[in-house]
């Protein structure tokens, strides 16, 4: 049984969609209005009740404060969700012995390194969002080390919510010319691929193929391949045959309240070899996303 918390966010909705084609797995979904992770009493009551009903419960935390730039002026709010909320979940999961899957970010790696990051590399979060995400993952791992799986992911997009791909689609159709940053390099992640990877990991543990103890710790997940934001925008325009022209610009030419790492490519060897995951290239998944978006716009 998988309990998806923050179920109406981008990743949460991808789990909702994945659940439709997985009738063999029981999913439960809690939106932010149904369960606010910053309220310890509510978290405790909900998880106690569900754990009594479903002894095999897994808690998947998709809830987060994700407004990277706004976090610079709302550090208290960001910390409340990304640190205190995660601490609440980890405390209760530890007490009840429940596995906790939690997501973090490539933005914890803000340094001069220009080779793919492995999970043991040192972290240098650059802004409030990244700092709160790092504090949250550390709190979860400290409170519940054996059964907390922290998955650091990057550049997440899907047909749901607001994300870079959807913004490029909209602006590419509205404007003749766009300037996009080319000196930040990372790996785009199609959120349904990430949800699918988590479900595969759950299934491997549920069927006894992998020991529960092996999920603990930090893991990386993103699609294969690397790109700049300029490359990603270019691929969207290419696949959608948008006439909008693209101009590569530097981070300096596009200042934002929060600094972003110049290079945050995640090495995924650990998760691939531990769980035998076959991760699609970002271009393959981008085309899937564009297809999904065009199918929904035709309805
Ligand atoms: N998006 C990216 O590019 C990216 C990159 C790297 C890592 N990540 C990580 O991936 C995870 C999923 O991100 P996402 O893109 O799905 O984010 P998202 O679309 O912003 O979804 C976050 C969800 O959390 C909910 N939430 C906020 N505060 C809450 C609270 N106190 N209690 C319960 N729910 C709360 C939000 O509900 P409301 O809408 O009601 O506020 C929203 O539904 C996050 O941990 C994020 O840090 C994302």
Describe it.
The mean pLDDT is 97. The strands form 4 sheets. The chain has a 6-stranded parallel beta sheet, with helices on both faces. Strands 6-9 form a two-stranded parallel ribbon. The chain is globular. It is built from 9 helices and 12 strands. By secondary structure, it is an alpha/beta fold. α2 packs parallel to α3, α3 runs parallel beside α4 and α7 packs across α9. It has a single domain, classed as Rossmann fold (3-Layer(aba) Sandwich), CATH 3.40.50.720. The structure holds NADP nicotinamide-adenine-dinucleotide phosphate (NAP). The site of NADP nicotinamide-adenine-dinucleotide phosphate has 26 residues, from α1, α3 and β4.
- CATH top level class name: Alpha Beta
Any idea of the CATH topology?
Answer: Rossmann fold
Query: What helical percentage do the residues reach?
Result: 40-55%
Shape: globular
Strand content: 15-25%
The main sheet comes to: 6 strands, parallel
Radius of gyration based on Cα positions: 19 Å
- CATH arch. level architecture: 3-Layer(aba) Sandwich
Number of helical stretches of at least 4 residues: 9
Mean pLDDT: 97
| Widest beta sheet: strand line-up | 2-1-3-4-5-10
**Low-pLDDT stretches:** none
Backbone structural class: alpha/beta
**Terminal CA distance:** 32 Å
Write the layout of secondary structure elements.
Layout: E1 2-5, H1 10-20, E2 27-30, H2 40-53, E3 58-61, H3 75-96, E4 100-105, H4 128-143, E5 148-153, E6 156-157, H5 164-174, E7 177-181, E8 185-186, E9 189-190, H6 191-206, E10 217-220, E11 227-228, H7 229-240, E12 245-249, H8 269-275, H9 282-297
Parallel strand pairs: 1-2, 1-3, 3-4, 4-5, 5-10, 6-9, 7-12
Antiparallel strand pairs: 8-11
The chain binds NADP nicotinamide-adenine-dinucleotide phosphate.
